Structure formats: C-alpha cells, structure tokens
Amino acid sequence: MSPKNKKKLLVIRKKLDLIDNKLLDLLKIRASYVKKVLSLKEYKNEIIDKKRINKILKNIKSKSIKKGIDPKISGRIWKNMIYAFVDFEYRNFKKRK
Question: How far is 60 from 81, CA to CA, in rounded Å?
C-alpha cells in the first residue's frame, strides 16, 4: 500500500471509530429499554416473541432496501443484536412472585 493510501486508510478508520462510539452509545440506550421491558415480564417464556422478531427483521429488510443498504448486512446485524439481547434477558430474568 502506498504511503498516500495508508494515510487515507487512517482517516477512514478514524471515521469508523467515531461511528462505532456512537453505536455503543445507542446500544447503551437500547439496553436500558430492554431492562425496562424485562422488568415487565413475569415468566421466562415471555422473553422471546417470534412474531415481533419476524416483524422487526422484515421492517429492517424493507428499510434497508429503501436506503440502499445491503439487506443481508443489516439483517444479520439486527438478528445478532436481537438474540444478544434475548440472551441478556435470560441471564437477567428474575421470576416474579
């Protein structure tokens, strides 16, 4: 790689790092809402709502196509995020009395 391209690469990577930091801030906010949702659930079998998950993934695919984003990328990201938060809910679930 030429020195000129290395410099361009560093600039682009710094921009990617800024986006990553913004995404982390958004994930923190999302996690706080997931905690609130979890506090309303009385039974573990309420954690997964397949209809809602399918609706979300369908909407993300549609919105991605409209915005010119590869729907396979956004779909995979959302699916992984959803199931990461499902895992979080299972790990943090406390049965209500």
Answer: 12
